[in-house]
User: Which sequence fits this backbone?
């Protein structure tokens, strides 16, 4: 990392888009100081009066914050295994977390929990917000930054839980707090990123693409390459949904060129390149991309992605008519998906495998697979559309011979039910 910015350099950044700005996206400490200066500079716009900032003891403010954070870290170190419903009760008893520094530590925990336990992340973010009334002795900018951060973390957790309406409300609150800070641009981009993800899931592609692009440019300007890359993924997904496959492919290629070769991010981009190539009818390229992603997912222990990847490869081979390649991949993927409880994808993989069996002139095996699928899904509470797909399959099974077209039609219905269940607000 480049060295921390001096006070004068931070002030310079208000006047120009100096290159030092790239440091702010990767250094929370300088970002805070920068935000603090904005408060001071707001009052002392006149260059001659700039030295007035010396009357404000920024060092003391930082020391109070560090002290509060340290005490909060200590609380978590002693109780790191609190889980489930107990979290809310436990949090309420922790006075050392009811400070602004404490809230920042709580929010870091919430962010780390996001993927594994969004419910817990939500409880933590809610606690940070509730504690805001007891934050004392901090300048207004710091309070706004932390409050905005708490709303943002709440939105992240709600999005992960599929509660999109509440997540959008939380984003509006975060935006309001960040807008009140002169240096809020970077934090506003974080709001746009989450909003873009939600809009994309809700098929509002124009707005999603526009926001993701704006956020990507802002993150790039602030040197936050990781966030910029993730926004690029949203942008490319929007292009793909819009059928602009050539542009999507070009953007994925660009993201791949900038990614670390062994990273999970590179694996995701490769996987998306595979999907794009498939939509363009280029099966060989699709399988090639997917095959490059598989060992990366495996080395990072991402079992769900490994199963999905094998499924994508098998499915691409099936569409290209290469059954010897398709069957073992689909068979393995189906077992993995079932084991991981990914029921929709397991169902679709089963239909693909049955279709391959029909093509290989094994109608009995195909029927067995379909019967198994119906039995498996009978024990599940399914969305209406999926129930219809299954009823259609049950009906088709009474006819002889079982047709490939029938299986493909059921697959299409099940896939539509699956995307709907992913996008629907809870
Ligand atoms: Zn720094």
Assistant:
């Amino acid at each position: 990392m480049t060295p921390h910015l001096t006070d004068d350099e931070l002030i310079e950044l208000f006047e120009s888009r100096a290159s030092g700005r790239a440091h702010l996206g990767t250094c929370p400490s300088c970002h805070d100081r920068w935000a603090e200066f904005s408060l001071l500079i707001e009052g002392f716009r006149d260059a001659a009066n700039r030295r007035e900032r010396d009357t404000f003891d920024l060092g003391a403010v930082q020391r109070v914050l560090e002290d509060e954070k340290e005490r909060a870290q200590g609380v978590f170190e002693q109780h790191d295994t609190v889980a489930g419903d107990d979290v809310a009760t436990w949090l309420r008893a922790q006075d050392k977390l009811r400070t602004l520094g404490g809230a920042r530590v709580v929010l870091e925990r919430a962010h780390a929990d996001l993927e594994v336990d969004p419910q817990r992340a939500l409880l933590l973010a809610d606690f940070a917000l509730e504690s805001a009334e007891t934050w004392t002795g901090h300048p207004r900018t710091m309070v706004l930054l932390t409050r905005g951060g708490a709303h943002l973390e709440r939105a992240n957790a709600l999005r992960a839980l599929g509660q999109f309406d509440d997540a959008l409300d939380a984003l509006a609150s975060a935006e309001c707090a960040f807008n009140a800070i002169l240096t809020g641009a970077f934090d506003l981009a974080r709001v746009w990123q989450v909003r873009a993800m939600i809009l994309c899931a809700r098929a509002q592609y124009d707005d999603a693409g526009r926001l993701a692009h704006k956020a990507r440019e802002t993150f790039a300007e602030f040197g936050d390459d990781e966030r910029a890359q993730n926004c690029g993924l949203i942008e490319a997904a929007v292009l793909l949904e819009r059928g602009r496959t050539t542009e999507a492919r070009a953007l994925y290629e660009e993201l791949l060129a900038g990614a670390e070769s062994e990273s999970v991010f590179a694996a995701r981009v490769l996987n998306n390149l595979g999907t794009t190539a498939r939509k363009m009818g280029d099966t060989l390229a699709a399988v090639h991309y997917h095959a490059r992603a598989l060992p990366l997912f495996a080395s990072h222990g991402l079992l769900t992605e490994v199963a999905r990847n094998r499924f994508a490869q098998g499915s691409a081979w099936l569409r290209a008519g290469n059954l010897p390649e398709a069957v073992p991949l689909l068979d393995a993927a189906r077992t993995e998906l079932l084991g991981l409880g990914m029921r929709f994808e397991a169902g679709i993989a089963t239909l693909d495998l049955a279709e391959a069996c029909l093509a290989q002139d094994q109608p009995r095996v195909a029927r067995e697979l379909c019967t198994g699928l119906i039995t498996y899904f009978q024990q599940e509470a399914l969305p209406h559309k999926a129930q219809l797909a299954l009823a259609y399959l049950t009906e088709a099974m009474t006819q002889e011979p079982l047709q490939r077209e029938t299986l493909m039609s059921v697959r299409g219905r099940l896939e539509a039910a699956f995307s709907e269940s992913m996008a629907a607000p809870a």
User: Anything to note?
Assistant: The chain has 21 helices and no strands. The two ends are 42 Å apart (CA to CA). Residues 4-5, 23, 27, 29-30 surround zinc ion (CB under 6 Å). The CA atoms of residues 87 and 120 lie 7 Å apart.
